[in-house]
Task: inverse folding
C-alpha cells in the first residue's frame, strides 16, 4: 500500500515525532510505501521515505496549517494514497495519532470566553471536530486513557473508532548489563563525585513540564543535601527565563541546561532521580524510559503514564491538585534515602521485564493497515 503521513514539523527529539518515525518505519518494514508531508524537517531522512516539504507560508500558524491542508489535498488528488495518517488534528484523515489532549476541553476550562472568538480558536476547534465528530470516519490511535472520555464528552465519538495503544518505549532504553560502567563513565565526564546527587528533568517545553517547580524544589532542599545536588534540564527550548530563575534562587551554579540530544539513556543511567512535575502531559514517555533504565521517578499525577510509576513502585507520584510543598518534601526525602532509591530502581527493572511497554508501533501499524477505514 501507499501510505501518506502528515505532521506539521519533524525534529528528532520530540515525543510525537519519535512515535511517528517508529510507526512509519514499522509500516515500511511490512512492505508499504511511505510518503510524508511536513512544513519543516530536521535530521536524517530514512532510506525509502518520500518526504514532501509543503511550500506554504503565512503570518499565523493556524493560517499556515489551513494552507498545508489545502495543498496536501490537491497533491493527493493528483497522487492518491491508500491511507492518510495524521499526527496533528486535521480534516480528511483515515487515522489520527492522538499525541495531544482535547483542545476543546482546555479551551472551555482554562481560557476565558473571549479566547473562543479568535480565529486561532476557531481553527483548532474545527480541526479537532473534523477528527472526532460523531459522523467522521477517522480512526483514532489513543495513547492516553485519561483523554478518551473528554473527546467523547465533547463530540460523542463512537467507541469503536478509538484504539488504545500500549506504550512504545525503544528497547535500547533498557539498562544493559554494563549499566554500572556506563554510569561511572558518565559521572566522570560530568565531574560528579560519588556522593553527588544528580537529578534530571527531560522534555521539550520547559514551561509545561514544570521546570519552574523543579528549580524551587532544589532551592528548598536542606543545606547539606542541597550542596551535593545538581540538576540537569534537557530539552529543545529556550532556557533564559529558567536560568534567571535559578540564579535568583541561588542555585545557578548547580543547574545546567542542555539541548535535546540522542544519548538520553546515558543520563538515565548516570542520574539518581528523574523529576517530572508537569502542569499537563498526555503520557510522558520519559517516565517509562526512566523506569526501564532503573532510575527512580518523582512525577505529578496529571501525567498519563504516572500510573505506571505507582504500579511498578519505582518512585513517587504527587497528589492532584499539585502542591509545591509536597514536591519539596518528596524530593528531599527521596534524595536523602539511598536504600529506598535502590529498591525503586530494582522494582523498575523487574517491571520492565514483565509489562508490555514496547509494542506501540506494531499495534499502531495493525490499525493503520486494517481494512475497515472510511
Result:
Amino acid at each position: 500500500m501507499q501510505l501518506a503521513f502528515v505532521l506539521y514539523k519533524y525534529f528528532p527529539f520530540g515525543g510525537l515525532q519519535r512515535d511517528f518515525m517508529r510507526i512509519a518505519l514499522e509500516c515500511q518494514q511490512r512492505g508499504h510505501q511511505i510518503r510524508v508531508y511536513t512544513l519543516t524537517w530536521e535530521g536524517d531522512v530514512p532510506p525509502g521515505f518520500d518526504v514532501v516539504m509543503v511550500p506554504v507560508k503565512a503570518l499565523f500558524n493556524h493560517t499556515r496549517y489551513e494552507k498545508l491542508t489545502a495543498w496536501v489535498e490537491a497533491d493527493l488528488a493528483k497522487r492518491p494514497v491508500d491511507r492518510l495518517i495524521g499526527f496533528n488534528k486535521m480534516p480528511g484523515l483515515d487515522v489520527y495519532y492522538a499525541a495531544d489532549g482535547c483542545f476543546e476541553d482546555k479551551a472551555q476550562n482554562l481560557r476565558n470566553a473571549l479566547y473562543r472568538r479568535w480565529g486561532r480558536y476557531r481553527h483548532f476547534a474545527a480541526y479537532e471536530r473534523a477528527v472526532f465528530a460523531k459522523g467522521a470516519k477517522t480512526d483514532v490511535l489513543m495513547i492516553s486513557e485519561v483523554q478518551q472520555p473528554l473527546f467523547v464528552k465533547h463530540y460523542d465519538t463512537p467507541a469503536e473508532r478509538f484504539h488504545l495503544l500500549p506504550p512504545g518505549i525503544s528497547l535500547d532504553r533498557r539498562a544493559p548489563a554494563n549499566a554500572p560502567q556506563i554510569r561511572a563513565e558518565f559521572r566522570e565526564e560530568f565531574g560528579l563525585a560519588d556522593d553527588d546527587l544528580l537529578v534530571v528533568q527531560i522534555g521539550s517545553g520547559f514551561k509545561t513540564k514544570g521546570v519552574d517547580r523543579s528549580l524551587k524544589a532544589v532551592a528548598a532542599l536542606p543545606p547539606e543535601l542541597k550542596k551535593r545536588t545538581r540538576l540537569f534540564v534537557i530539552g529543545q527550548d529556550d532556557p533564559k527565563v529558567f536560568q534567571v530563575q535559578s540564579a535568583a534562587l541561588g542555585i545557578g551554579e548547580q543547574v545546567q541546561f542542555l539541548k535535546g540530544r540522542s544519548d538520553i539513556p546515558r543520563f538515565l543511567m548516570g542520574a539518581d532521580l528523574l523529576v517530572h512535575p508537569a502542569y499537563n502531559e498526555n503520557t510522558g514517555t520519559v517516565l517509562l524510559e526512566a523506569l526501564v533504565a532503573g532510575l527512580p521517578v518523582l512525577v505529578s499525577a496529571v501525567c498519563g503514564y504516572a500510573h505506571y510509576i505507582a504500579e511498578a513502585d519505582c518512585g513517587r507520584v504527587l497528589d492532584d491538585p499539585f502542591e509545591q510543598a509536597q514536591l519539596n518534601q518528596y524530593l528531599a526525602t527521596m534524595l536523602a534515602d539511598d536504600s529506598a532509591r535502590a529498591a525503586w530502581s530494582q522494582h523498575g527493572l523487574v517491571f520492565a521485564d514483565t509489562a508490555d511497554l514496547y509494542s506501540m508501533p506494531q499495534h499502531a501499524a495493525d490499525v493503520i493497515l486494517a481494512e475497515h477505514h472510511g
Remarks:
- The longest strand covers residues 33-38.
- The chain has 15 helices and 15 strands.
- The chain has two domains: 2-166+359-369, 171-354.
